[in-house]
Amino acid sequence: MRYRVGKVTLPYLYLLSATILLVGLLVLPFISGIAMSLQSMKLSGEVKWVGLGNFLMLFRESRFATDVRNSLFYILGNILLSTPFAYGAALLISSKFKQAFVFRGIFLLPWIIAPVVSTVLFRTMVDPAMGPVAKMLSTMAGKQIIILSNANLALITVIVHSFWRSFPFIMLFLAAGMASIPDELYESAVVDGANGWKRFIHITVPLTSNQLGLSLLMVTIWTLHDAETIYAFTQGGPGYSTETLAVRLFKMSFINFDLNMGSTIGVILILISLVFMFFYLKLSIGKDMEK
Amino acid sequence: MRRKGVAFYVKESLVWAAFLLIAIFVLFPILWGLRTSLTPRFDNGFIPAKLTLEHYSAIFSRPEVWRYFGNSLIISFGTILIVLPVSLLAAYAIARFKFKGSQFSIVFLILPLLPAIALLVPLIAYMNFLHLYNTFIAVVLVNVVFSMPFAIWMLKNFILANPIGIEEAALIDGCSRIRMLVQIAVPMMTPGIVSVAVYIFIGAWNNYMYSFALSTSPLRRVLPQAILGFLGAWGANWGGLNAIGILAMIPPVFFFLLFQKWFVAGLFGQQLK
To answer: What are phi and psi of A146, to 5 degrees?
Structure first.
């Protein structure tokens, strides 16, 4: 009898510490975050319920529209650049080349370098006086170009930086998918006379679509949430031209300490994330079923 | 034996060219940073006329830099020390027990996809209330919470890969459950535990947002946060900024290169060794 009681409670006991941490520091803040987005604090410190007032205020701003647009560009730009590049890199590191392992290690470096450090590296390259990229652009244009003072160039620069950081992750996911494709499929395709491109389109792409979907969803979510990189790079400037929703949240909450407006943007970010999380869950459950 | 034809060599060199192109794209920013950190301040040449260690010695002559390194180490290892045992127990329960509610374990897979930045805002108020604002404990706890769901998910997969027969045999021999976990199950999954630890370390070491949100004291800054401060304060002192950037890069790159095989296999499946 004692054994049975032990057996029933033991799993819950094992899960206890993790659950306390997650409920206390993730679920409860989640709820108070929602509450805070519906409140406003006066200078006197008095807290007042304002319903959806904070949201309405945001939706009326042109700055908010810019934030949404920049988030969209930041995500789409990153994914559109990363995907073809990651496919190429994944094919290479999955090839039977002896040196593929060494190259894989090199290709993964951007993924494990701190965002603020890679920002230093990239800002050095676009520095108007010293940076090789800035000098090259200025020579091509025939006049001095200050990359980070130009709204479009600044946005392109933070997108390229993000692309540099995120393609390795998609590459690894795709390589994992490629490793699980049986060699016989390719062999019989060769017998049928399919060339390399056809084999890629008809075998590799469909059989890695699950991995592509999962990794792109993760990168989308990370890019949506990423404030660290852009804040270090441009602080959202010039003007608001590189300010994404996450950067706005960062500045509102941790620099201006307007926690209610910060929470409001936070709730918007959470709602958008939930959509992607739903698809992520669907894709990964589907993957588990196949096994 | 067939002789290798022209086509073979053409293909071979194309593959090499592709490898090198991507490697240049990846390495150029890093190598340029290294070059900048080793070049005197106003040397603009593509290949520097002379090399210097002045930027590094300038950094090490600042006592606060040692403190930032120390703070980052405390936070990273503090996080690992809490996450590992807590997640190991939780992962073991999910992997090996049948109990009511176990189907909800999928939650651990998607929790890390919530925006940490959005939850940090109410967490500032929480930590203030708990008198933990401006302490290492607050930053460690937040690191713990945001890395734990994924750690649980990964460890669960490693435990499932352990042969269950050995665990059962130990239990039949009268080994207690917890001793069995520590002395039998854990040693069988060293690669898994190491890859989770490296993952947590890299995440905690590289992050500045949690510390930025939860402490204002300059004494408690972590290294990336300090670099952010230098970026604002030093203007275009790229030699100094790159020197400290290269130094900050060393620990994660070192652990990554050392455990690359386990790390990659742990995250992306055993096929990728």
So the answer is: -100, 100
A273 touches chain B (CB under 8 A): yes
Contacts of B224 in chain A (CB under 8 A): 114-117
Q: What percent of chain B is predicted at pLDDT more than 90?
A: 40
Output phi, psi for B162, to 5 deg. -70, 140
CA distance A262 to chain B (A): 7
**For A19, nearest residue in chain B (alpha carbons):** B90
Q: What is the pTM of this model?
A: 0.90
Chain A CA closest to residue B258: A105
Helices (H), chain B: 6-37, 54-60, 63-96, 107-110, 116-129, 136-161, 164-172, 177-180, 186-188, 190-206, 209-214, 223-233, 238-258, 260-268
B40 has a chain A CB within 8 A of its CB? no
Q: Please report whether residue A214 resides in a domain.
A: yes
Domain count, chain A: 1
Containing domain of residue A117, as a range?
Answer: 61-290
For chain B, say whether A118 makes contact (Cβ under 8 Å).
yes
Q: What CATH number does the domain containing A168 carry?
A: 1.10.3720.10
Give chain B's domain count.
Answer: 1
Look at residue B42 in the predicted model and tell me its pLDDT: 74
* In a domain? residue B8: no
- Note whether B29 contacts A176, CB cutoff 8 Å: no
Residue B133 within a domain: yes
How crowded is residue B40: how many other Cβ atoms within 10 Å of its Cβ?
A: 13
Find which of A47, A107, A113 to mutate to test the B interface (most B CBs within 10 Å of its CB): A113
Q: Summarize the confidence of residues A260-276 as an average pLDDT.
A: 93
Note the ipTM here. 0.90
